[in-house]
Amino acid sequence: MENPNGYKLISCDDHLDLGYLPKDLWSSRLPAKYASICPHVEERQGQAVWLSGNRVWGGWRGMASRRPPTPPPYFTALERGGYPDLSEMRPGTAKLRLEDMDRDGVYAQFIFGPITSIVEEQEDFRDACHRAYNDWLAEFCAVAPDRFMGVPVLPWSPLSATAELIRLAKDGRFKQANLPLAGMTPGIQDPAWEPLWRTLEETGMILSFHVTVFVVGRQPDDPAAGTPAGTFSATKNFVAGFLGSFVDLFAWGILERHPGLKIVLAEAGAGWLPWVIQELDYRHWRLWEAKEYWADKGGIALKEKPSDLFKRQIYPTFQEDRVAVALSDFFGPDNLLWGSDYPHPDSVWPDSRGAIARTNGPSYTGDAQEADPRQRGQALRPEHMNSLLREPPA
Residues 259-272: pLDDT tens digits? Predict the structure, then answer.
C-alpha cells in the first residue's frame, strides 16, 4: 500500500452501513428489558430488513432479495467494482474488507457506521443501541487495528452524547466520534451542548459531522422523487445538510470559545466552503463596523475572523474535488482530508488512485468538452492527505 512517493493512502471517510452489520449485533448485547423492541432482521415481502418493534430501520444485505430482479436506480461501489452479490457482506466481513482495501491501494480507513438508522424516541433504548453498536465497532476494528479506524456514533441529545463521549474517551479505542446533524435536538447553538464541546476539548477527541443525504422524514410529495431530477437532489442535500450547523459554529462563538475543538465535515465535499468562509469574514467585518451599536448591548464576543477559526479547527473531506484542491492554499496544508466513501454509490472505489490523479489535474472550468476527466491529472500531493493519525496542527 506504499505509493512511489513514500506515503500511505488513508481514507478519512468510509462506511459500515446498517445493511452490512451482523444480524445479532443488538440481540446479543442489549439488556433483556428491551427484548420486545430489540433491533433484529426479518424478511418482509421478499427482502430482509431491520426491525425495531414495528419500526423499519432499513434493509439488511445478508440475504439475497427474493423480489424479481429489476435494474437498480443507482449502483453501489461494490456493484460498480464487479461484486453484484451484496449478500457477501464484504464491508462487514473483516477479511473481505481488507481485500477490497488492498485492491484499491488504501492502507487504512476511518469507518463511519449507521448515520440515520438509530431513530428511536425512547431515549434510554436509543442510548443503549448506540452503546451496543460502538462496542461492536471497537471489536470489529480490533481485527486490524492499524488499518480499521472506527468512528463511533453519539446519540442525538446533549446529555446522552456527552455521557457516551466520556465513556468512549475513557475506553481509549477511538480517536473521533460522529454526531449526526440530521437528528440533533436542540440545535448546536443551544447552551445545552456546552458540556459536549468542553468534553471534546478535555479528552482530545475529534468530532465528526457526517452528511445525511437521504433525509429522515423526506416529504412523499417531493416532485423530484422517482424522476431523473431526483439524482441531482443529492447536490443540494449535501450542502443543505451542513450549512446551518456549520455557520452556527462561527455565529454562536462555539469555535472561538473552544479553540481546542476539532471538527471533521465528512462527505460534504470542500469546493463550496471557500465562498462560505469568505462571506462569513465579510459579515464579521460588517458586524465590527457597527461596534458602536453593540457597545451598550453587551458588546461583541466574536473577536476572531471566521477564516482563522476555520483553518485552526475545521477539516472537510472529499472524494474527487478539483475545485477544492485548486483552492488548497485557502484551506491550509493539513485541513483537506481525502476519503474513498467505500462502499457507497458516490465512492471512487476501486479507482481511488485514479480519482486522486484526476483531482490534482487542471482546475474545473465547466467546459462541456471536459465532460470526461478520467484521462488527466497527476498524483495528489502528500500534504493534501492528512490522515488524522497524527495530531492536527494547533
Answer: 999 999 999 889 99
Cβ contact 149:113 at 8 Å: no
Inside any domain, residue 81? no
Query: Could you list the residue range(s) of the whole structural domain that residue 290 is in?
Result: 10-17+88-384
- What is the tens place of the pLDDT at every residue in 368-388? 333 343 333 333 333 333 433
CB atoms within 10 A of CB 202: 12
DSSP string, 223-292: TTTTSTHHHHHHHHHHHHHHHHHHHHHHHTTHHHH-TT--EEEETS-STTHHHHHHHHHHHHHHHHHTHH
* Cell numbers representing residue 316 in the block: 472537510
Radius of gyration of the CA atoms of the chain, in A: 21
CA dihedral 253, 256, 258, 259 (to 10 degrees): 160
* Domain CATH number, residue 369: 3.20.20.140
Predicted model pTM = 0.88
Domain count, the chain: 1
Helix residue spans in 314-351 (DSSP H) = 322-326, 328-331
β-pair partners for 10: 108
**Does residue 150 contact residue 174 with C-beta atoms inside 8 Å?**
yes
Instruction: Please tell me what DSSP assigns to residue 2.
Output: B
